[in-house]
Structures are given as structure tokens and as C-alpha cells.
Amino acid sequence: MTLIELDGITKTLKGQQKPRTILDGVDLTVESGQSVAILGRSGSGKSTLLSVIGLFDRADGGRYLLEGRDITRLPERRAAALRSASFGFVFQRFFLLKHLTAAQNVAMALVNGQGWLPRRRRRAKVMAALEQVQIAHLAKQRPAKLSGGEQQRVAIARALVRDPRVLLADEPTGALDTETGNLVIDALLAATERGCGLILVTHDRDHAAKMARVVRLTDGVLAPVLPEPAAPTVPALPVVHS
Amino acid sequence: MIRLSGRMRSALIIGGQGIRARKLRTALSMVSIFLGVLAVVVVQAGAEIVRQAALADLELQLGKDGTVQMYFPPTEKGAAAVLETLRGRGDALAQMSTSAIIGEPNTQPVNPGGAPFNDSAQGPAWATEGGGAVSMACDDQGFCRPIDVGPDTGAPRGAAIQLELRVLTGDVRRFIPYQVEAGRWLDFTGSPSMSPRIVVNREAAEGLARHRVPAELHVEGTTANPTPQIVGVVDDGNGQPTAYVWSEDLFNWLPGPAEQAEWVRGSMQVMLAPTAGEVERVLRARLVSAGVADNSVQTHVINVRKNIAEQLKLLRLVFLGLAALVLLIGVAGILNVGLATVGERVEEFALRRAVGTPRTLLAGIVLAETLLTGLFTAALAIGLSAAALRIGVTLLHRPEPFLQNIVFPWQAAVAGVVAGLVAGLLGGLIPAVRAARIPIATVMRA
């Protein structure tokens, strides 16, 4: 089932200087349970594209369908409801509130004015989300007591707690070491196994390679990245002992 | 139980978390509006206490709101008609006043003219045109006033006290809120007693406690001096010694209806309940048939509360205006703290928008914080004022007896809560609008 369909999306930034086109007819399709990595140079518009997909920002032109429904020109009130119901967000910086525990940080996505869950059900959902990223035992810890990887997993649990249709991750491993980054990517990929779409913006080719599809944003246009040819293998030479 | 909407609950939960996370700022905000809220509470409490005190005083003098007082020219037939109409009624009564002496007969009472017992330095009496005599009596505070001591009979001073006797055809406490302080009030329902039951006021009770007098009641016009039964003590706000008696008890000692009417006609006061419209019409008709001119029968409705409210209105407004000014200065403080807090929490608010929190809820979170802060401050100010009042009443209660029954007025508590909420609303409004306008992309650029 097609989750996201972008058709000719354009976005121009009207700054203090002359207008700059960031997205110039972006086409992208993401299927249910599919993971897509978006590569690109800094300033190429990856985050802007993610903003448009996540309804943080509105496209200037083109068409945006979510599960077949046109949401290109959604009013802010309905966009907020859709963000809450259909999207989960993971950012490079974890954006955990330091005065709240891990569980309360996750619950933040449930206490957002979009419907009301009784405390018991809320707690059950929070613990299930923390369980998904294997840090349920840290539920009562405050962010200051958690490592970078643990903090990012709390952020992923926050993104997953409402069972989103699409997970949007903007360089989620940018502030982590390679090993911890791999754990985070695995946690994100685990979500796709339950049918959640994943769009990952990253600079890391290794992480991108783990996704089902890899695209590159260049000059405001998305293009698929072809797999690199495998390096030729050299037969081992016999060892000669003098 | 009030069911709050999900959005309101969310605002309260997140607002509560914000307050807990920034205790110092919350405390600073509370400090900034505390004086203003306290000023509102104190002004309102003070005004209400003054109003209550004035009301209690005036109600004791004039009667409860809505009581209808009827006036008519004193005629013998008219008085007889009134006594006959009002006999045994609960919703209307006639009250007659006369002078009485309890104690040794044919002697001069210790307080000639029914003067208060605390009065001192009674000067020499001087004669009046009517053949009576007037003396000056001064109380503890040095206030002096002339007291009618009656004709100088040349009788020797004896163990007797003089008091004002109020003769009632029904229960006057329905119209005037006398407080029974000891014993019981008069019973107007049973059989009349040959030994008139009387209730004395504080001053009379003090006189009776101070002077041992024989139990003999002398009332002008009675056939003999009956033995009174003192059944209770009442606070009637009257500084002069006074006693109350049921007319049926006293009329046993008056020869007949004609004498009764003659006896009461000069001092009759009629009071009717607001619901006694029919009695008023019957009474008026009977007075007219008794020869009283219709246009000379006048009624007056007691409206004490309105009068007091009007008198205190200006004073209350002036003080509330000053309190509002202090509160406004506090609002500037809470506004300042609120703006600084929103500035610090830009990322939090952007993140909340990213997870689907609507702008209105973001504004609601900030407002919930300032409103809760205002409520906490109000609770503190109300608690402090109530405690101060309690301590004040305990300390001052002896010299100021009127403070005995004073409790912290609920109106002051309501005013405090309203002031706290208004301060919270005004102080939180601009920060709330700012919070709602924080662009969501802040989290993407961070």
C-alpha cells in the first residue's frame, strides 16, 4: 500500500536576498513498511523536504498524498492532528525535556491535546514503546542520567508511542558514535517490520545502505542512488618461503 | 464531578510539570503578584466585615430587611384594634414600651431614668417644663447625655433598678435578630403566666448582677406588683437596661381591654413580615373603622443592606482601585517572568507542535501555568489573611466584643481567587500568544 506520494513538490525560500529554490519538483513514493534513505550535501534541502513531508511546512507547488488523501493544502489545525496521528519524528538532537523522566518524555506525544487517554492506558502505551527500543528499565530516569544512545532511543520511543504510519528521522545518528548509531538505526528499522514507513535523512552511507531504497537530493531533485559496483577480488598469491 | 476536556487536562498536566520544573521562577511570579492579591483580599475582607458589623448594628436597631413598620396616630380605639388583630399572630406584632422598676417599691432606683449602670457622675437633676426632672449621665468613655429621671418624689434610694420594658404581642426575633446569650427566649405560644416571664438585655443583667433587688415588678397602670421570672438574657444592642415581656403575661395585671388600650396607645410600634400583606390590609381597614384617617396610616419597609451597600460603595471602590494598581504592578512582574520563560522554552514548544500539539494548547499551557501560579498566590493570600484575622480576633476580642462573631468573609476569598486568576490571565496572555507563534521548524534548524 502506498503511504506517501509526492508529485512535483516545489519549495522556494524567500529570504532577505533573492528567492532560492530548494525543492524543484520532487517526486517520491514510500510504500507501507518501506525504508527510504535520503542522501545529499549539507544545505541541499533534505531537512526542508522532511519538513514538507512531516507537515511542518507547506509546499509551494506539487501534490502530496498520504494514503491516497491529498494533504497538500491542509490547515494548521488539521495538520497538527495528522502529525499526531500519522507521523513520528526523530531528530539529530534528541529534544528530551530534562525536567521529565524518560517515561514522561515519551508520554509527551500522548498528552498533546489530540484525544485523551486515561493514565493507566497511557502508562501501558509508554512502557510498550520503551520496551520496543529495549530501555523499559530506564523509564524513571531523567535524560541527564542517560547516555546519548539511550536518549535517542527514548526519542524513538516518543516517536513510536502513537503507532505512526510514517517515521521521519533527520540525521538521528549525527550525534552518536558508530556503534550506538547502528543500534539506533536497528531500532528504527524494527519499526518498519510492523508496517511503518521510514524516511531517513543521513550523511552516513553505511546507515543509508541498510535502507530498502536510497535516494539523493541534488539541485532540488531526487534521484535514486545506484548500488556501487563491487571491488574486484584478487586471488591470494602463494607464500614462498626461502 | 467536572469533566475537563482532553485539551484542558493536557494543559493542566503540562502546566503543572512546568511549574514543578521551574520552582524558583514560579516563586518569583508569586512574589510579584502576592501584594496585589493580598491587597484585594484585605480590602474586600475589611469592607465585608465593616458591612457585617454595620448591618448587625442597624438590624438590631431597625429590623431585618423587608420588615414593614407601620405608623399611625395614637388613639385608644386604634390601639385596641391593633391588639385585637395581632393577638396570636406570628407574622406581625405590636411592641409597646414603658418604664418599669424591679425591686423595692416606693423607693428611688439606683439608676433613675433607666440609665446604664456603667454611667457615672450623675449630676443634679433639674426640672423640666412638664414637671419632670432631667439628669446628666456619663459613660466610661466620657460621653454624657440627659436622662429623664421622672418627677422628684422625694422617695429614698432603695434596692431597685429601673429599666425600659418592651411588651410584645409576638416573637420580635422574627423581625430583629436579638441573640440569646443565656437562658431562653420568651415563649409566645403557651398559656399566659401570672408571674410575668421576662428576658433582660445585657445591661439589665449586669445591673441585676450588681445590685441585689427583690423580685417585684412595678409597671405604671398595673393593679399590683407581680413577681417576675427572668428566663433569659439577650443581646439587643441597647446600652440601656431593657426587659422584654409577652403582652399576655403583663395584661393579666391590667384591669381590662380599655385600660390596656389606654396604656399602650402612646408607645405602640407595629412590625409586619414581608409576607403579611393581608394582615397589613386588615389592620389598615380596622384602623380606619376605628376612626384613624386612612392617609395617616404610614408604612416603611426596612432596607438596611441596600443603604449600607450604598454608603460603603465609594470607599470600597477607592480601596479596590488602589489594590488593583498594586496588582497591576505585580502583573508586570509575572509578565516579565513569563516572557523570559517562553524565550527559554522555544525548543520545547516547537517540539510539542511537532508531536501534534495545537497552537491553542501551547497557549493554554502557558496560561495554565500563570493561572495556577495566580491561584496558589490567592490561596496563600487568603490563608494569611484568614490567619491574621483569627489572631486579631483572639487578641482584640475582649475590648472589641463585636469581633467575637466575625469570621473570614467568603466574599474576600472569592475576590482573592478572582484577583489571582485575573493577574495570571493578564500576566500570561502575551507569553501565551508568543508560545503559540513559535515556528515548528525551530526543531529542524536546531
From TrEMBL, chain A:
<dbReference type="InterPro" id="IPR017871">
    <property type="entry name" value="ABC_transporter-like_CS"/>
</dbReference>
<feature type="domain" description="ABC transporter">
    <location>
        <begin position="4"/>
        <end position="238"/>
    </location>
</feature>
<dbReference type="InterPro" id="IPR003439">
    <property type="entry name" value="ABC_transporter-like_ATP-bd"/>
</dbReference>
<keyword id="KW-0547">Nucleotide-binding</keyword>
<dbReference type="InterPro" id="IPR015854">
    <property type="entry name" value="ABC_transpr_LolD-like"/>
</dbReference>
<keyword id="KW-0067">ATP-binding</keyword>
<dbReference type="GO" id="GO:0016887">
    <property type="term" value="F:ATP hydrolysis activity"/>
</dbReference>
<dbReference type="InterPro" id="IPR017911">
    <property type="entry name" value="MacB-like_ATP-bd"/>
</dbReference>
<dbReference type="InterPro" id="IPR027417">
    <property type="entry name" value="P-loop_NTPase"/>
</dbReference>
<dbReference type="Pfam" id="PF00005">
    <property type="entry name" value="ABC_tran"/>
</dbReference>
<keyword id="KW-0813">Transport</keyword>
<dbReference type="GO" id="GO:0005524">
    <property type="term" value="F:ATP binding"/>
</dbReference>
<dbReference type="InterPro" id="IPR003593">
    <property type="entry name" value="AAA+_ATPase"/>
</dbReference>
<dbReference type="GO" id="GO:0005886">
    <property type="term" value="C:plasma membrane"/>
</dbReference>
<dbReference type="GO" id="GO:0022857">
    <property type="term" value="F:transmembrane transporter activity"/>
</dbReference>
<protein>
    <submittedName>
        <fullName>Peptide ABC transporter ATP-binding protein</fullName>
    </submittedName>
</protein>
Automatic annotation (TrEMBL), chain B:
<comment type="similarity">
    <text>Belongs to the ABC-4 integral membrane protein family.</text>
</comment>
<keyword id="KW-0812">Transmembrane</keyword>
<keyword id="KW-1003">Cell membrane</keyword>
<dbReference type="InterPro" id="IPR003838">
    <property type="entry name" value="ABC3_permease_C"/>
</dbReference>
<feature type="domain" description="ABC3 transporter permease C-terminal">
    <location>
        <begin position="322"/>
        <end position="439"/>
    </location>
</feature>
<feature type="transmembrane region" description="Helical">
    <location>
        <begin position="361"/>
        <end position="388"/>
    </location>
</feature>
<feature type="transmembrane region" description="Helical">
    <location>
        <begin position="27"/>
        <end position="47"/>
    </location>
</feature>
<keyword id="KW-1133">Transmembrane helix</keyword>
<dbReference type="GO" id="GO:0022857">
    <property type="term" value="F:transmembrane transporter activity"/>
</dbReference>
<feature type="transmembrane region" description="Helical">
    <location>
        <begin position="408"/>
        <end position="430"/>
    </location>
</feature>
<dbReference type="Pfam" id="PF02687">
    <property type="entry name" value="FtsX"/>
</dbReference>
<feature type="transmembrane region" description="Helical">
    <location>
        <begin position="314"/>
        <end position="340"/>
    </location>
</feature>
<protein>
    <recommendedName>
        <fullName>ABC3 transporter permease C-terminal domain-containing protein</fullName>
    </recommendedName>
</protein>
<dbReference type="InterPro" id="IPR050250">
    <property type="entry name" value="Macrolide_Exporter_MacB"/>
</dbReference>
<keyword id="KW-0472">Membrane</keyword>
<dbReference type="GO" id="GO:0005886">
    <property type="term" value="C:plasma membrane"/>
</dbReference>
